[in-house]
Amino acid sequence: MVMASVIQKIIPHYSFARWLLCSGSLRWYQHPTEDELRSLAGKQQKGQKKKDRKYNGHIDNKPLTIPKDIDLQLETKCITEVDTLALHYFPEFQWLVDFTVAATVVYLITELYYSVAQPSGEMNISVVWCLLVLAFVIKTLFSLTAHYFKLEEGGERSLCITFAFFFFVKAMAILIVTENYLEFGLESGFANFSDSALQFLEHQGLDSQGPISKLTFKLVLALLCSLIGAFLTFPGLRLAQMHLDALNLTTAKVTQTLLHINFLSPLIMVLLWVKPITKDYIMNPTLGKESVPLMTEETYDTLRLWVILLLCVLRLAMMRHHLQAYLNLAQKGVEQMKKEAGRISTVDLQKMVARVFYYLCVIALQYVAPLVMLLHTTLLLKTLGGHSWVVYPEDDLPCTHEMNSDPAVVAAPTAAPTPAPVIEAGARASVAQLSVALGGLRTVFSPLLFRGLLSFLTWWIAACLFSTSLFGLFYHQYLMAA
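The structure corresponding to this sequence follows.
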């Protein structure tokens, strides 16, 4: 509640989303006015209507057309707060970014509190904030994808459906790969979940063969993966185009190197879970004829979390380069128009230039949303999966809040109610039963289950983003050129 009040009071005055767009580093191209186009084309002023025709008492104004090879130079301007009022999806962009910042601050404060006070039995409130962030991201991506589905022309709807089916088949193939190659921990997590749930239901006096079969579990997970892949289709395609334009925009070698690392960052995240390629070589590198162990499993898990966070920070730092590359599409479109023969109406030219700026926040959302998904899925993986941010010696590893898998043990410490009035005894009995039920649920949804599930989802988001970006790179580099 405190952070919600802070968001309400501070964001109207200090907004990180507004700063990303209006800090002065982004410049947009203004569309020329009709008078400027008339002057460049050598046309008469609008007041002299020699070519107006009168039909049935109505004056028919012919649309003004100008040669496409006109000597037109667009003027640039820094984005201001007033300019953002005309941007499509700016409220959604501002809310998502600012709420993500607030949720990240809550997470940092909570992690500091848990590292200092080390409370036991308390609910981690940062988990709720991370789940809210992921819910807002999914809602935003759903709105953007629904916008593409409303378009009758262009093929966006067919492309989205095609990628959804592709990612469904890909997810089904990935889910049958053995843990020797992709070590998510899904198999052990699901086995622990099934056993704990079966014991919990038996303790409650219910006959059951288990909450869900492994085939149904993987089918539901594949459908969720297909939905995520469909949502990340256009963000990945757009990222590829902005990456190519950003490389052409800059000449600094350091910036180009960072842009390449940023583009390959999803691939790096994907390889972190490929056991034969990264984990075996990092944990037990072969030196000569012997393999020397360098780190423990816990150390590698911590290192993997930090690598993902650093790559997310790099992607945020490269955001302005990509957005400026997108804004330069207005000038790029005008230069391409000059190479064509024929004429174009002034209204179409103005729309072509203005459309780039008005959809800036749509592009910003497509850039930020996958980043936010990766970041907060990783934070949930650390918290719910029982990982640590600090590399500890093997003998001093902190407790990861492991729960006893037997619900009967959880219920054992519950003492019998002391003699009391009937109403008070009934209330105490209800509280005791609720405590036993909640304790049993904690054993069902164990860190082992969350570790496998969130590891797979983090890996899948990175895999989808890299797959769509790679396809977009191939499309814009080769198919568009052909």
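The mean pLDDT is 83.
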